[in-house]
Design a protein that fits this description.
Structural class: alpha/beta
Radius of gyration: 19 Å
Strand order of the largest sheet: 4-3-2-5-6-7
Number of strands: 10
CATH topology of the largest domain: Rossmann fold
Strand content: 25-35%
Bound molecules: adenosine monophosphate
Shape: elongated
Largest sheet: 6 strands, mixed
CATH class of the largest domain: Alpha Beta
Oligomer: single chain
């Protein structure tokens, strides 16, 4: 089974990274009037930054790139453009992470074309191989430490996708699933999270349960 390194990100991690990003924005004396979050990953970070910086003008642009957990689906694209006029405003565009950097680069270009007076970008994490470098980020991830970050707002999307991938090759019990996660994905989801993941997959008609055993349909 081919796994990849994951990290189960906690809300404490998010709060620390948001604080760090805000510290850098303030040190730079940047004073945005409008925040634009990239749906979906940048929505919660954008909301938290808008709360801490007391900026009520918060909007979203939607980009799509990585269709299934840890699998990019071709070129990034904008699927929801900015629905308001930000001409002449100081803008901050926010996302969770720059990996290839395509999504943020595309969104920044889109917003730039709408004539803001100033435009900066921020992410919580920046993977060093990214083609686009955000103006502000809390932490960097070296290229050889590439990790799939399972953010608290994405837990069940990621765990269902990874669990289905595991179940392509294995029938599982909760215990064996936990072992596979530890061995191949370097994380230890709680049994309650795995129970919830499996019950979502049963409800979606993707897997069935036979006693303690779960298998793909
Ligand atoms: P990208 O266009 O490759 O910079 O990434 C687009 C979006 O995919 C990011 O904003 C994240 O929501 C998600 N994503 C990409 N890489 C990762 C990763 N290593 N861990 C978690 N989410 C990721």
């Amino acid at each position: 089974m081919k796994g990849f390194r994951c990290m189960l990100v906690t809300w404490k991690n998010i709060e620390d990274w948001v604080s760090e990003v805000i510290k850098k924005i303030e040190l730079d004396k940047y004073n945005p009037e409008v925040i634009i979050g990239l749906a979906r990953g940048g929505l919660v970070p954008a909301r938290l930054i808008s709360d801490r910086m007391q900026i009520k003008d918060l909007y979203a642009v939607k980009t799509e790139h990585w269709g299934i957990t840890a699998t990019p689906d071709g070129q990034a694209r904008i699927t929801q453009t900015l629905p308001i006029n930000i001409s002449g405003k100081r803008v901050l565009v926010v996302d969770d992470i720059t990996d290839t950097g395509q999504s943020l680069s595309l969104a920044v270009d889109h917003v730039k074309n709408m004539g803001p007076s100033e435009l900066k970008s921020a992410t919580l994490l920046h993977i060093l191989h990214s083609k686009y470098i955000p103006d502000y980020y809390a932490d960097v991830v070296p290229e050889d430490k590439w990790t799939w970050f399972i953010f608290p707002w994405n837990v069940y999307e990621d765990l269902t996708n990874i669990t289905l991938k595991i179940m392509d090759e294995n029938q599982v019990t909760i215990e064996s699933l936990q072992d596979i996660y530890e061995k191949y994905f370097q994380i230890k989801p709680k049994k309650s999270q795995l129970n919830e993941t499996l019950s979502i997959l049963i409800k979606k008609g993707k897997i069935v349960r036979d006693g303690k055993i779960y298998k793909k349909l």
